[in-house]
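Hi team,

Filling in the usual template for the complex we talked about on Friday. All components are listed, including any nucleic acid strands or ligand strings, so the model treats them as one assembly.

SUBMITTER: L.P.
PURPOSE: interface mapping
COMPONENTS: two
RESIDUES: 1149
SEQUENCES:
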Amino acid sequence: MQLSYNLLKEYVDIALPPEELAERLSMNGIVAERIKPVFEEVKGAVVGEITDIQAVGKSGNLSLCRVDIKSKKLEVICGAKNIRVGNFVPVVIEGGNLPGLGKIEGKEIQGVYSQGMICSAWELGLEKSKSPGVLILENNFPLGENIKNIKDIADDVIFDFEIFSNRPDLMSIIGIAREIAAFSGKPLHIPEQELIEIEEFITDYISVEVEDESLCPRYAGRIIKDLQVEESPFWLRWKLYLLGVRPINNIVDVTNYVMMETGQPLHAFDLSLINGKKIIIRRANPGEKFRTLDGVERVLTVDNLVIADTKRAIALAGVMGGENSEIKANTKDVFLESAYFDPINNRKTSSYLGLRTDASNRFEKGIDPYGQVFALNRSAYHIMRLTEGKVISGVIDQYSKELSKGKAIKLNLCKIDQVLGMKVGKTNKERKERVIDILSKLKFQINSLEEHLLEVTPPSFRSDIKIDVDIIEEIARIFGYENIPSTLFKATLVQEGKSNKQKAVDKIRNTLISCGMHQIISYSMINPKYFEWLKLPSSHHLCKAIELANPLIQEQTIMRTTLIPGLLKAMQWNVNHSIEQIKLFEIGRTYFPRNGAQGGPLPVEKLMITGGIAKIGRGDIWQKSESWDIFYLKGILESLFDSLGIQDVEYLPGDLPFFHPLHNGIITSKGKRIAVFGRVGDDIISYLDIPGNILLFELDYEELYPFIKREIIFQPLPKYPHIQRDMAIIVAQEISFARIKKEVLKISPGIKKRIELFDEFRGKQIKEGFKSIAFSIFFQSDERTLTDTEVDKIMENVTISLKKLFQADLRQ
Amino acid sequence: MDKEMENLREKFFKKMASIKNREELQRIRNEYLGRKGIVAQMLKKITSLSPEEKPRIGELLNKIKRDFQKTIAEKDNDFLAENSGKEEQVDISIPGRNFMLGTTHPIELILKYTEEIFMGMGFCIVDGPEIELDYYNFEALNIPKDHPVRDDQDSFYITPDILLRTQTSPMQVRTMESQPPPVRIISAGKCYRRDSIDNTHTPMFHQIEGLAVDKDISLADLKGVITEFCKQIFGKDRITRFRPGYFPFVEPGVEVDVSCQLCQGLGCQSCGYSGWLEIMGAGMVHPNVLEMAGYNVEKYTGFAFGMGAERIAMLKYGINDIRLFFENDLRFLNQFK
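RESULT (copied from the run log):
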């Protein structure tokens, strides 16, 4: 809601300067998003009188104007069509400045040197977008005076207030003035306006039939005859500029001004264009076509309410008028409409048609159902004064019996203290007085007060006040939130802050960060093309994704079933920004349709932990020369399992199509699949245009969680020294280290053994199809110091066993 | 014996005065303090002394031993200090081998800080679904269909009844439905709105929701708890301001501002010349919401608040573009160590 300081001062006395007023209002819930002095950034603009106009150039679009600015006469080129000799206009002299255009230079146009420029409202910063024509001032303005010195105009400040959607009553000058009056205690003035009616009766001119009272609980109208449509006088145009409304003509300007003044939207019809002397408020026929004032033809449904005559629709109720009945230059008689339309239906219509107007913006939030005639009379009064039109006697005012007067609300005064956590008054008497004072200023009607029980009726313009806490908020607002103390809970509550399942997620995150990985967060909505890129067949369970009914962009149309697309995207981004060492992980949800009705209507959300590493280019050799291969990635996973106390895991060859077939693993624990890992396939890497390898893992938290060991149990340190033996064997390539290790552990089960790999080697010295594996075995007993002879004997058995099972050759 | 000891001292210190390097020092150490050195040999002689003499001489000899040790050690240090620099000098300005620290995402940092602050005030952390019923996201929060507030929260729908939650507030109702009062919870997570991407909007963002319901919870408690939170997260010197706000699921409604850190409340570009930065919406839980969740509105009151984690992170760290959070650029992530 845009309005100005001076406009407000016409309705209420204001002692505070504009900035302080804005600050004070924001503490009452009306926030000024913008405060701007009128003519801000305007420099060197003065009042001038046009004394001569001559066409220049061939096109005839430009005129040479002679402008008298008292101290001298200027020659100015102007393209506007709305200028006449004798008009007073704002003219900026070369060297001046305009907010819309910056510094104004004199320049030659069509062979004439223009010494400045006649300004439009937009150029002076009064409008948000350009409109044709220059700003015509009033002829009593002091000639030659800088416009920044003009009294009552230039000293104004424009506010742009944010109005909460539950307070449509504040979308008006009177509404905001009323709030100021309530907190300042100053009286509200609403100028009296006396209407003079002629001896003809409205019922002879028109009748109104409301077909659907629920959608139009009130419909009021007046007729003004024999008027002259023309440009509004300066004072009215000026007020509209201050309110952010573009002036059109005197009739439309009056209806717009009164809407801004009272909050009641009005519409003016050309009476001669209403067929059959009848207004019918009805639902539109299915498929009914209607051209609104903006020239757009709209196709309506039965859910749209129209204002019609006996032949056709003439307005889209509460949204916009029609071209077929609009006010034109030759309009003589006008029917003024002032109605109350059902907010929900109005909102449906304007959102269905994508058409939001100042009127619909008020109707949809719920205006005062008792303000129609007041606004109608004010409009009629202004039109009468401005146009010498004649006001026909009587008002049409049809309203539904359902139209409610405000309901009385009971409020226990003790509840105020309880909700606010303070005493509003030192004594019960003081509290009572304060509450009644605040509510009276806000125009609540006090019905009764017994002991602590107050009964009030909110004013009709406050449809937002429904129950007692709504009234408590009013009291708090005017009392001032800043005057409420700050306390901490009286009662303490002991509970565990996080569940074990939440804590384990924190642990996983910390461990991965300890491994040097960076946490990322990527979008939950992904591009379904990723499934294709990842070569997942459409039957794969990961492709069964939830689709958005109304996606915003093509790249985000489905809910992810894996975090891999987001991770790859982040890797790609970093590669594209020349980052060479990339270690990322994400802990986030994936989303799957629910199979069957079990578990409720919502999809399944599963937490996944996905990580990826890539080393591009040479890397920083001094810092780290390690190679980031599949064992590096596996090392991260092993560290993670180690930190979670998960011991019983098996690494098996995997089958995911996007991993390289030979670097493709799954991880199981007790037969449950808890993770996948591998090297992203070469074709995918080249498709994503990443130079180098990417290694990924994805862990399913739901599957992983049951295996997490929560308690740490201390193991006593060994009392006796261990004995270490190294061993190197040559075996066929398909014999895995895991199998060898398993066999070694089986031998002499009474003695503890730990096996550590120190080398795996294939190549020239080794026969084709074979590999060398070297490892250390650490022998340990809890009962005694082992002897060399004992260990030698075990080693012998190990050698025999490996030879027998795997045809392993001992390497010397 | 006493005489012998005196000679020993004299000789030792004389020799010490003339040695030139560590090798000579080592020789003297062996000669006097070695296993078969002079001092050791003299100590052996003690056994042949009378019982009265034994302790006295023993003590004197041990004193000699300590003095010699000390003198040798001091001399050794002198040599070391002299020699340092003569050996090969390492270039200690060469960078160490870096461990390449991992980092927590800045949004996660904010969620963690926030959760910790509120856990300290007795709140517990709960999680809720991101794909949510329209009922919990709107209706149960006093936002029926066709309510104007829905305009500000353009939603992604899966079906007409199921959507991506636009706020974390549905967890207020879900929590109250699942447990009797008292309640003190924090629920944080992803939310979604159909906003086109620009430097202050992304279609996905994170919210942090809080709810406390009990007998005798008041607006004053809300002010106290939020003021404490703001002090902990933004710093003790920041001022918190409460003013009326409108959210259909609270009444009275509250908007919370903190003083701008750049201008200390004087007004600058970053705070829109107001001196204040909006950080959260809050209020007393609307009786309709308590009632829909099955709580006795005569007995219980509560407060709720909600804030955007991105907004808090942007204000706390001075980040000027919300898109940075989801680009996952390592040059960005690496700054949050």
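MY TAKE: Residues 788-806 of chain A form the longest helix (19 residues). Chain A touches chain B through 90 residues (CB under 8 Å).

Thanks, L.
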